[in-house]
Q: What sequence folds into this?
């Protein structure tokens, strides 16, 4: 490697201070980007929660008028968009970012600046969407944005089309980044079949994103041009086909539900073995069930369209395919149960949330199989039964899993433990509030309550009214529970008990390094010789198969020579990703308002930013050859 | 500056792997546009339909674009051999052909517009302009990349021994060409058999 000192030429736009505001804007450290994702997600989760509380306030009783129908429509649309695109997906990205390199023994992701780019696209996409509230009203055509309703000007869905497009670019960039990182940057000995299950699920999720995002991109471009520029894709009057929109949307939309659930499944597959003191049951079956879900997930989309004009043959085919996909899902559930079976279980808060995940997700999965039965579906479609179903899988599933991950890896990030007592209060109130909110929706849905309807019609009767009241009370419990969580989070960051490097007696290599990890993650990249590498370094097995501790120091990678860190070549911070992505705002507004001047400014800005990015070396004194931060330090 | 080969798990350059991954995604992007076009091929709403295409003209511009893949290969090859001067020459030639193609597309669109085919005319028109227009946008980005490669090789940012940079632009460029082969066949040629 050429000398690092000779680079004192032209002054560069590169903040060098390790702390302060600019250091965060310019960061290319995967750990810091993960933290940025996390706090942004919390902010959007709060907003999405307020929106849902308003919905529930409006529906607490029949014939209320807390919200006007117009505002109601904006609320449920923005709530759906927020929870899906601004909370659950980026929440998973927070974990991917922070953990992935640590779990495979890498110093960073393959493309650190592209990683920052993904974050900024996410942030600006979210801000862009929410700015619509101040610019004539938020989108109000639901998160699926069915055309042609969504193409008329009243629905303000141009913001939806452009906003989701921006978020899609963010997801696509991180998908590419994570795929390359996993394929190419594993530590020596970390074969695919030794990777932690979370890494497997990250890989599957990334491939799903890679192939699903371009399809929604096409649908959104078409929608956008129909809405703003009078294109004729979905206008029946000129021969356009609204069903095409539905196909394109759900070709993305169904893989999307797995995009939201697989990361949580990965987290649970890490938490359960640790707290059961047993290896994950059926590792290979787990990995391949995930991949199978990914494949079949692209072949079931029309189960969302059973009541649309698609004909009896597709209906039957998609019904069968949908029931089929329950098989790999079932395999996973049994594997988690068998992981716990016979284990020495410790019910920490993280473990409780994982158990909660498995039970609540199973309920949601069962109502999902009911949807797959076509005649049943005709009865349930667009009722609250569907709302109950997808909240059991998204909230009871994805969100429980992700929160489990927060409790589990909090010590890794902060070096402190979260308060377990508060954590348990959080868990039980969360579980209770969740079931109180969404359980009754099964009943009111079966009794015929339509979803996306601003006023609960009085003629549906008193039973439905009672269920709705219970639902709305559940939100109060959830709000209290969320406050406990937030309090616990902040208090533990400030003054939580010190955790040490390995508080849970964990199994995977992210726990082998310092807590919190240094900038370069590992002083010496570990050489991996087995699945659950860390565990095997700590324990050997006695004849009866009981783990016996290995004496300290019995297995270490060759010791680093003193001051080794200084030779480790890490990417420098860079402002270019943030500068470059800022151009998406003028571009986006230009597209919404058909203002070519703004579009031009945005495009030129982004191209200029791109060149700034290309010209700046990845690390000072580096000639971007070879790639930095690979599995090996040089 | 000695380039130490980055040690990756698969022995592949990460940047190349990233480009391949991205292009895999792009296939679905164009796949969706092609499907929409095929669905709407007869939905002309009383306006012009496929008879409007001028096959000889488009054949010529397609030929130019295909030939640009050849010069792209030559540019990469010169770079590998360390001949930056030739590499620049071929890179410019490739960009030039790309621009000829784009010029042809602008001309074609203008003619169609005069004959009454515009984006708002019919589902056929919308999907035609989308499919070919998004392809054109890809070509334009490719031209920008080529010109960038050219000028950065002048400033010394792209050096001898860094032929992976030319290779990356090349991968993208060949992809755009392949997509055009598909579009030309599906949009222009196959419907012609029916007329
Ligand atoms: C804080 C607790 C939550 C409450 C009280 C809540 C409540 C609601 C309600 C009442 C609706 C409207 C249904 C309709 O009228 O059709 C809704 C829709 C929706 N929710 Fe939630 N929700 C919560 C959390 C979540 C979470 C965590 C997610 C995702 C992970 C989520 C995803 C959705 C989606 C996708 C829709 C559909 C929006 C649409 O119809 O366009 N929700 N929610
Ligand atoms: Cu589905």
A:
């Amino acid at each position: 490697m050429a000398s690092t000192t000779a680079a004192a030429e032209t002054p560069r736009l590169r903040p060098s201070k390790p702390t302060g505001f600019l250091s965060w804007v310019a960061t290319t450290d995967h750990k810091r980007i993960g933290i940025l994702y996390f706090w942004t997600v919390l902010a959007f989760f709060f907003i999405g929660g307020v929106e849902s509380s308003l919905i529930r306030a409006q529906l607490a009783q029949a014939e209320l008028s807390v919200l006007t129908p117009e505002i109601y429509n904006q609320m449920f649309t923005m709530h759906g968009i927020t929870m899906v695109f601004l909370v659950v997906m980026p929440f998973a990205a927070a974990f991917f970012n922070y953990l992935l390199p640590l779990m495979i023994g890498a110093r960073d992701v393959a493309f650190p600046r592209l990683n920052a780019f993904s974050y900024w696209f996410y942030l600006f996409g979210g801000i862009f969407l929410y700015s619509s509230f101040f610019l004539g009203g938020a989108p109000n055509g639901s998160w699926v944005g069915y055309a042609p309703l969504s193409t008329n000007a009243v629905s303000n869905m141009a913001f939806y089309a452009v906003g989701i497009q921006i978020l899609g670019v963010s997801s696509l960039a991180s998908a590419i980044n994570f795929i390359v990182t996993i394929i190419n940057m594993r530590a020596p000995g970390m074969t695919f079949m030794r990777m932690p299950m979370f890494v497997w699920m990250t890989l599957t999720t990334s491939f799903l994103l890679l192939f699903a995002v371009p399809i929604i991109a096409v649908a959104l471009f078409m929608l956008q041009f129909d809405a703003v520029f009078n294109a004729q894709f979905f206008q029946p009057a000129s021969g356009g086909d609204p069903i095409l929109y539905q196909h394109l949307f759900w070709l993305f939309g169904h893989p999307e539900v797995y995009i939201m659930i697989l990361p949580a499944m990965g987290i649970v597959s890490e938490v359960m073995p640790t707290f059961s003191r047993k290896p994950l049951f059926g590792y290979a079956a787990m990995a391949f069930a995930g991949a199978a879900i990914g494949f079949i997930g692209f072949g079931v989309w029309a189960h969302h369209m059973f009541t649309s004009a698609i004909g009896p043959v597709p209906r039957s085919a998609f019904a069968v395919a949908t029931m089929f996909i329950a098989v790999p899902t079932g395999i996973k559930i049994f594997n988690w149960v068998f992981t716990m079976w016979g284990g020495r279980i410790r019910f920490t808060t993280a473990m409780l949330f994982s158990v909660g995940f498995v039970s609540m997700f199973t309920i949601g999965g069962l109502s999902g199989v009911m949807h797959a039965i076509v005649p049943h579906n005709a009865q349930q479609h667009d009722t609250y039964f569907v709302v109950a179903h997808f909240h059991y899988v998204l909230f009871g599933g994805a969100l429980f899993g992700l929160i489990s991950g927060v409790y589990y890896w909090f010590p890794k990030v902060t070096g402190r433990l979260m308060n377990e007592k508060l954590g348990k209060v959080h868990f039980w109130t969360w579980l209770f509030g969740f079931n109180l909110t969404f359980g009754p929706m099964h009943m009111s849905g079966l009794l015929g309550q339509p979803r996306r309807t601003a006023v609960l019609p009085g003629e549906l009767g008193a039973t439905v009214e009672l269920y709705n009241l219970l639902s709305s009370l559940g939100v109060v419990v959830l709000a209290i529970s969320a406050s406990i969580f937030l309090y616990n989070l902040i208090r533990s960051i400030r003054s939580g008990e010190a955790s040490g490097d390995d508080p849970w007696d964990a199994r995977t290599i992210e726990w082998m390094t310092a807590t919190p990890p240094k900038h370069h993650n590992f002083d010496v990249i570990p050489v991996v010789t087995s699945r659950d590498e860390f565990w095997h370094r700590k324990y050997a097995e006695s004849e009866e198969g009981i783990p016996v501790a290995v004496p300290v120091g019995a297995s270490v990678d060759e010791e680093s020579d003193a001051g080794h860190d200084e030779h480790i070549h890490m990417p420098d911070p860079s402002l270019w990703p943030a500068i470059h992505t800022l151009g998406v705002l003028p571009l986006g507004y230009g597209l919404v308002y058909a203002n070519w001047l703004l579009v031009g400014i945005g495009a030129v800005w982004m191209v200029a930013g791109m060149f700034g990015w290309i010209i700046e070396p990845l690390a000072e004194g580096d000639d971007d050859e070879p790639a930095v931060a690979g599995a090996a330090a040089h | 500056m000695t380039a130490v080969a980055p040690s990756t798990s698969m022995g592949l350059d990460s940047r190349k792997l990233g480009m391949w991954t991205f292009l895999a995604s792009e296939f679905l992007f164009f796949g969706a546009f092609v499907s929409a076009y095929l669905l709407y091929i007869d939905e002309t709403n009383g306006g012009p339909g496929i008879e409007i295409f001028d096959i000889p003209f488009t054949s010529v511009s397609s030929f130019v674009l295909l030939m640009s893949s050849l010069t792209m290969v030559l540019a990469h090859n010169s770079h590998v051999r360390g001949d930056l001067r030739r590499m620049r020459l071929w890179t410019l030639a490739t960009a030039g052909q790309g621009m000829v193609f784009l010029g042809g597309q602008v001309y074609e669109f203008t003619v169609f517009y005069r004959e009454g085919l515009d984006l708002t005319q019919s589902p056929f028109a919308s999907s035609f302009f989308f499919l070919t227009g998004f392809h054109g946008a890809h070509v334009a980005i490719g031209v920008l990349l080529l010109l960038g490669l050219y000028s950065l090789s002048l400033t010394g940012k792209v050096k001898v021994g860094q032929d992976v940079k030319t290779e990356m632009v090349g991968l993208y460029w060949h992809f755009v060409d392949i997509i055009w082969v598909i579009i030309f066949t599906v949009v222009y040629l196959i419907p012609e058999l029916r007329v």
